[in-house]
Amino acid sequence: MSKSSCTLCGLPTPDPPITDEGTEGTFCCSGCLQVYQLLQEMNDEQAQKVRNETIRRRHKEWQEETEVLPESYEETFLKVEGMHCATCESFIESISRREPGIYKSEASYATEMVKVFYDPEQINKEELPGVISKMGYQAYPTESKNSSNNEVNTVGRLVIGGFFSIIGLLNYILFLYPTYLNGEGFIPLRPEELHYFISNIFVMTSIVLFYTGFPILRGAWVSLSVMKPNMDLLISIAAISAYLFSTGALLTGSTIVYFDVTMAIVMVVSIGNYYESRIKTEKNSLLAQLMDKRIKKARVQRNGSIISVELDELLPGDHVIVKAGERIPVDGKIIAGKGVVNEALITGESVPISKRPGDRVVSGTILTQHALTIATDPQIKSTVEQLINLMWDIQASRSGKQRLVDQISVYFIPGVLFLGFATFFYHFIDGSTFTSAVLSALAVLIVSCPCALGLATPLAVASGLRDSLKNNIIFKTGAIFEEQGKADILAFDKTGTLTTGQMHLLDEGQNEKALTYARALEQYSSHPLAEAIVRDHPDTNFAVDNFLSYSTGVSGTIEGNIVHVGQPEWLSERGFNVSDNQWNLIKNARRNGHVPTGVAWQGTVHSILVIGDQIREDAELFIHSVKKQNRQVAIITGDSKMAAHPIQEKLKPDYLFTGARPESKTEIIHKLKKFGTVAMIGDGSNDALALAEADVGIAFGDLTAIAAESSQIVIPGNRLQQILMAFQAIKQTRFRIRQNLGWAFLYNITTIPLAIAGLINPLFAALAMAGSSLMVVANSSRKMKLGI
Q1: What crossing angle do the helices spanning 404-429 and 451-470 adopt, rounded to 10°?
Q2: Mean pLDDT lowest for which of 50-64, 143-157, 718-732?
Q3: How many domains does the chain have?
């Protein structure tokens, strides 16, 4: 065990530690090494500031990690439906702590998750969702599909509320509004008859307020219970004030009631929230197509027969059978068979790896050729599951920021209540009757009702989600529109994002016949390199006999010649002559991160084909566009410095991290965050932790389910410009939210003084409130322009 400490962060280093010939010191990972090298280029003051911040954060992390919990504690993650603000986080954390057996919990509305630390002897893991599922919040295990009836309940509340609101407002139009204007309704009614209709309106309003408006009232109660006023509380105050005043008027025989205000407030805000949730549901249905790639079962050989079992039923030493085209379900060692494994989505390496007995394989990688028998380790492990758990750990520890409108509510609510009471006392002391003073105070509360404020964010967010979906850009959470409006640094995983992630024939060699022979042979192979050779010319005129496939190449008879295509060393071992010039070409190809493949017959290697990944056609123009927006570019790659030289020359990134392994990407992102907000763009499972660590995680391209799970934005396409379109959507949505809030405040600034002066009655206040809300709806409904 190494006793040395990392020169950068001070954490213990592995044995042997990570070092570099040109850099003094020892490091715990290549990420720390590369960031340390980056610091050498900074001035002393800036470098010391970054170093001090790193030490401070490390000490904080260490204190959190060493928080005293019983050794028997366990932890688990739950997804929670219904969280929409920081207040929800505090409430869920508080109700879970009240349950015996739960030590603590960490909730995040941005990711709709909660991490629970509990005592398995006092409470079963299966009981935890029931503990959290209170006050309308629905918790369920992360691995299960959401089967809640939330959508059905929401639609039911709106349909019933809408029905009674229409009937109630129809009664107002026929019997009450005309009496406010000329003292008589369309249909003359005696006082007791009018009182009967108002009683019916009271019942309808009660249903609208307490059934349809339950989510709003719940939000208000939650905000009071954790002492964090939010927009739901402000809306509830206005709706309940009008309801209570009208109920009192009904009981005293008065016909001046404002149940219509309560119904309008509840329905307008509920419809706005539903519109946002519908867009989110549409987004989730599209996202669900990417989420169903988890490995759930394994094929195992037991007692002479092969059976399929769940992963958690695997035993140490089990013999797992994997066939060509399947994902390897569990980490282990090959005991039989040879094959070629594509590890790109786990390790980031685009070149497939040949595997034979004795080699280790990790879960999540894809076997492209032949079949393997894998012996599980003494301790069953899945690299994919470990990545998922670590990714959830990072996400759950990141609390969502309080929404802007809720931050405003903290100050707005006390102000409105103060003005309401002040208005009442002013008019009452000035000689007005008690009822008249109450009406003036009620007008202040109603005119201050934040319907426009309540709609400002959800409608703008829903519009942003909708227009982004049309461009194949999926925002997993609306919180990102308020939390992150920009990214100072765009960090790219090279393979699959800036490159195509596929093998291409980069050099066809100098011998046309050899190329044709190679294509004739490789059309019978399922190896990724074979696909690159054949892709553009799938048909050949040569017949192939005696085709054989090996882990390092293929062979067959063409025109009487026994032709071999494969690794140069394999060809050399079989007695084929490789010239010095060809060896130089081979070495040069490998230095550039490419794969040289020889074509040989009659004792000679006749041609060397070069296969490799290639930079996307639009990458250069895209990077230019990024820099034009005053953003910096970082490229993270597992290639050597020499192999990464071509992409550095062509794209000219501000930062280039080479030799980066999956485990070091998170540390690289963490250090880059010292220089500004960081967006990480990646496609594979090996990028999951870095995507979760970044300020903005963007899963892009032919991505894996884990990459999609760990990011906030998912772009399952191949146009790099969509990344900038996503930031455009964020910027435009944030601007629209501020426009809506600006209009709402302009309305309040204009009408509140009039209400205080007694120049606005509650009816006019309700009409003004509705007009303000319509302005917000119209502004939010405008189509965004996301073209580049």
Answers
A1: 160
A2: 50-64
A3: 5
